[in-house]
Amino acid sequence: xxxxxxxxxxxxxxxxxxxxxxxxxxxxxxxxxxxxxRSENITFDLSHTRSADLMEAMALGIAAQYAISEGRHxxxxxxxxxxxxxxxxxxxxxxxxxxxxxWKRTGAEVPSPQYDTLDTERLLPVTDLADITLANLTQExxxxxxxxxxxxxxxxxxxxxxxxxxxxxxxxxxHAYDPTAQPGTGCRYIAVRHVQARHTTPETxxxxxxxxxxQHLSPNSDFLEIIVADGGVGIYTRLHGAHQLHLKxxxxxxxxxxxxxxxxxxxxxxxxxxxSSHLTGPRRGQGLFRIVSHAVNGWNGAFYxxxxxxxxxxxxxxxxxxxHGVLFPGTQIRVFLPIQNRESQLADVNFKxxxxxxxxx
Length: 361
Known about the structure:
- By secondary structure, the protein is of the alpha/beta class.
- The chain has helices spanning 20-35, 54-69, 88-96, 99-105, 134-148, 154-175, 209-217, 235-250, 263-270, 287-298, 343-360, and strands at residues 9-13, 17-18, 41-45, 51-52, 73-77, 122-128, 188-195, 223-230, 302-315, 319-338.
- The chain is built from 11 helices and 10 strands.
- The chain is globular.
């Protein structure tokens, strides 16, 4: 996309299929170009979009919030029934997941109203964490999980609600934005859904290599998908100083190398057992490491993280893969959990985490 230097209005045309690949390779590059231009008004044009991945649709709100914080006016051009009958699918998807309302909360102009809808796969629609307490969030989600999955062992329910959802949501609330920011500033989204193995739709026909790998490992399994996304400062900005102090304590006899203090190394440390937070208690203070341990080792699922320019995927028995993309605000966490009985494996994870906590305290 070429933007004339004198242009004050830029239109970013969202691809017909908004998924992991098109978001990373098309949208982010165009968004970067627009933000480097003089454009005062930005339109995200979804008029030709036919399907959207949930996480990337949530990320459009983060992009809008960032542009608005930089003094731009942002509008969404959302398909309507009168324009394209074939656009019903994406329009209904945006309504069903309350994305219209989420985008409006950023301050963006969205002409369509948000309606209340019903969706059988939706365990928790896109919700701003500023609108709900963590206690109410976990209580509501626990009740829904127990209702829809009554055979889940109790430690599996608590793993999902406490170790994954609570931990990721708390990180977004406490660490995403500067503590001096105004209350309600920014985007802190969460969504949870049930993905049925035999009910493939354009929105669940995933292109992400790591999701396809997980589906290959558990071909007949339904999944739970948890997304927690914010548009804050990102992990590297928040933890860079703490990471350097950690390195200096462990390597006191020489100067640190540039690679050792880089974003990928900092993210790897944040995901490891060596990183602990200010919280105390046998189930607290292990942050992202606790989420990864439960999701990958406990559930035999997948963990994905996008922050800054770094993307990390963790898969069972395959370790971590790291790649790099265009800079994007905040931190987005996505977890895929096969719906299987993993009671004994989660008990092992809890035992190992407790031992690690005891050794550090």
